[in-house]
Amino acid sequence: MSHLLTEAAEGVYVIAATPFTDTGAVDEESIDRLTDFYLDKDVDGITILGMMGESHKLTSEESRRVMSRYLARVDGRVPVVVGVSAPGTDPLLQMAGEAMDMGAAGVMVAPVNTVRTEEQIYGYFSGVLDRLDAPMVLQDYPLTTNVNISAGTLRRLFDDYPQIVMLKHEDCPGLAKLTRLCRSEGRRVSILVGNGGLYLPQELRRGANGAMTGFAYPEMLVEVCARFRDGQPDAGEDLFDLYLPLLRHEAQPGVGIALRKELLCRRGAIASAHVRAPGPKLMKDDHLELDGLVARLERRLKGGRSSLRAIA
Question: What pTM does this model have?
Answer without folding.
Answer: 0.95
